[in-house]
Each structure stands twice: as structure tokens, then as C-alpha cells.
Write a structure and sequence with these properties.
The chain folds into two domains: about 230 residues, no CATH class; about 60 residues, no CATH class. About 5% of the residues have low confidence. It has ten helices and 18 strands. By secondary structure, it is α+β, with helices and mostly antiparallel strands. Strands 3, 4, 5, 6, 7, 8, 9, 10 and 11 form a nine-stranded mixed β-sheet that branches. The chain has a three-stranded antiparallel β-sheet with strand order 14-15-18, with no helix packed on it. A two-stranded antiparallel ribbon has the order 1-2. α3 links the parallel β3 and β4.
Length: about 325
């Protein structure tokens, strides 16, 4: 079952008990989002290969230098996007992100619920994941964004939530850091009120914040990579899954119907041609076998992706091409200028 179906069918409230007073508080979580998520008109489920590609685009060395906020837009006012966590987790570890083995947010499938303005340039993001094989959780943190935020300014929230918002950024990046410039992170309103009334020390409050924001911040660059690919002129290979026959059987058995969705896969990437043993392209000794990370470069309305690949001996290879070119409509590329 996809994560969105588990969220849409969630009915159990998220309750916390105060150990001192014994009082019980209901916090906004998956159950409160169930009906809203189920009504998303656009639901994407990413293939594992596309998840890896988006993670590469988001975190590979070289991809961080691309200013692309003017090319980004959310394609619907509400949408759902989910992926299997294993390829994403593997990519994060490959690029040096230390993950907590016991962290429940790294289990199974992950998803993001995005709400946006009609032009797709401003909105809110909240993430979800499986806590166990049967239970789902929503992040206590949500992110709001404005892709038209100018350097040195702060994005404006699109709703009335007055919770304190903070910036998440990489200190080694310059003004092309889309997340640091265009996104702000805050507690969902009920969580903000709950922690605000708990009388926590500054040290404990900061530790809670860092743990909570870690459940959503790493997803944002991958979401941006997906929206970037989706906005290209050729788009992404898509297939709509219709579940009419399956749902008729489920209803007859007293089960809730599953939600139709769009399966999205990776575009065709360059291929390699291996030479036979003993065949050499040059008389001089080639470089040692090594991995070349992906590299992303933008030129006007085009983005060039130098795909990750192996180079060097012991078996020389001829590379047909190692560059993928994605083209955007010029009107989109000039949107923010």
C-alpha cells in the first residue's frame, strides 16, 4: 500500500499526556490531514531510479552552484509526492549525511503534501512517513516558501500561522542557496502552542527543534529537484494508475478504496559502451578506476547534468555521452527577471 493511502485512511488522533498534570493534548498529525490529503487532485509516486536521480541532483557536488529558483513552480495548488526511502537514504549516506539508524523517519516510505498559490510560486510543505508497518506520522515542522524572495529578504507565510520561523541553510553556499533564501521552517500551530506552554529550557527546546526539523529539511532539495525536472520541456515519463477493478473488490470486502496516482520514472540517461579486454583507446596509461560525481550547470534556459559515472582502468570504457540537457521554455526562465 502506498503511503498516501495509509495517510488518507488514518483515523487515530495523536495524543500526548502530561506526566505531571495527567492532562491529554491532541496534536495535529496524520489523522487531521487525512481528508485534505485524500482530496489532492495530483498524486505522484516516484520510481526508485527517479528518487536516486533527484537525490543526485539535490546533493551531488556541483549541483549546489545552480541558481534555479526562477525555474521552479508547484504544478498544482495541492499535490502529494511520495517515494521509497531506501534509495534516498542510500544517496544521503553516499553524499556524507550521517543518519540515525533508529530514527523512525528513515523507515519505509516518505511523502510530502504541498499546498501552493495558483502560480505555484508560494506555498507550504509538510512531510509524512511510516512510523511502523501500519502507523503513519506527520512532521511537527512545516515549511513555507516563496520562490520570488530576493536576496537579503525573508519569504512571507501564506497563512495565519504566527509560530516563530527559522532559516535552514548551508554556510558554505552563497546566494544561490534556494532553500536558505526562499524557505522558512516552523512548528505546526498546535505543536507550537504545546511546546510553548511546556516551559522547556533553552537547551532542550533547541534539541527538540533540531530533531524535528531534521524530519523535513533534507527532503526539500529533493522536492525542488523533482519540480525542476517536471518543469522541463520534455517533462518526465508518467503513467496513471487506475485502480477501478481492484477497488471494486476492496469495497466488496469492506476495505477502503485505494487512491489513483501517477507513477513517475526517470528520463532516459546516457549509455556507456564497454570495450573488449585488451582494446585500448590510447597508448598512454589511463587514469585509475574512480567515480565521478554528477555536475549540474545552468546556461540561460538550459540545465546540463553531467551524470555520475566510473572512469579509468582496469577496463577502459568509451563514453557515448555523459551530459544530459534539459531545456525550459524561455518564458519560464525569465519569470523572475
Amino acid at each position: 500500500m502506498n503511503l498516501i493511502d495509509s495517510v488518507a485512511q488514518c483515523q487515530a488522533p495523536f495524543l500526548v499526556r502530561n506526566r505531571t498534570s495527567g492532562s491529554v493534548t491532541a496534536l495535529n498529525n496524520a489523522a487531521e490531514c487525512a481528508a485534505l490529503v485524500a482530496r489532492c487532485p495530483l498524486r505522484y509516486v516516484l520510481s526508485d531510479n527517479l528518487t536516486r536521480l533527484c537525490a543526485d541532483l539535490a546533493y551531488s557536488k556541483g549541483a549546489r552552484t545552480v541558481a534555479c529558483a526562477d525555474l521552479l513552480r508547484v504544478p498544482a495548488e495541492t499535490l502529494w509526492l511520495e517515494w521509497c526511502n531506501a534509495p534516498f537514504d542510500n544517496a544521503l549516506q553516499q553524499y556524507g549525511f550521517p543518519l540515525i539508524p533508529a530514527g523512525g523517519q528513515w523507515v519505509g516510505r516518505r511523502g510530502a503534501w504541498v499546498r501552493a498559490t495558483p502560480d505555484g510560486r508560494r506555498g507550504l510543505v509538510r512531510t509524512f512517513w511510516y512510523a511502523t508497518a501500519a502507523d503513519v506520522l506527520a512532521s511537527s515542522i512545516e515549511a513555507y516558501f516563496d520562490f520570488d524572495t530576493a536576496p537579503g529578504e525573508d519569504p512571507e507565510p501564506v497563512d495565519a500561522n504566527t509560530a516563530l520561523a527559522r532559516r535552514v541553510f548551508d554556510g558554505h553556499r552563497s546566494e544561490d542557496d534556494v532553500m536558505g533564501r526562499c524557505f522558512r521552517f516552523r512548528y505546526e500551530q498546535s505543536w507550537s502552542e504545546y511546546y510553548g506552554s511546556a516551559g522547556l529550557s533553552g537547551e532542550l527546546s533547541l534539541a527538540l527543534w533540531r530533531h524535528a526539523v531534521g524530519a523535513i529539511a533534507l527532503d526539500i532539495p529533493m522536492l525542488l529537484a523533482f519540480f525542476l525536472l517536471l518543469a522541463t520541456r520534455s517533462g518526465l515519463p508518467q503513467r496513471t494508475r487506475t485502480l477501478e477493478h481492484l477497488n471494486r473488490r476492496r469495497v466488496r470486502r469492506g476495505k477502503a478504496p485505494l487512491l489513483e496516482h501517477i507513477e513517475v520514472t526517470t528520463p532516459v540517461l546516457p549509455e556507456y559502451r564497454d570495450y573488449q579486454r585488451g582494446e585500448s583507446l590510447t597508448s598512454r596509461m589511463g587514469p585509475r578506476l574512480h567515480h565521478v560525481r554528477g555536475h549540474l550547470v545552468r546556461r540561460d534556459s538550459q540545465i546540463f547534468w553531467r551524470v555520475p559515472h566510473l572512469r579509468g582502468g582496469p577496463r577502459p570504457s568509451a563514453l557515448l555521452t555523459r551530459t544530459v540537457t534539459w531545456t525550459f521554455d524561455r518564458a519560464v526562465a525569465r519569470h523572475a527577471h
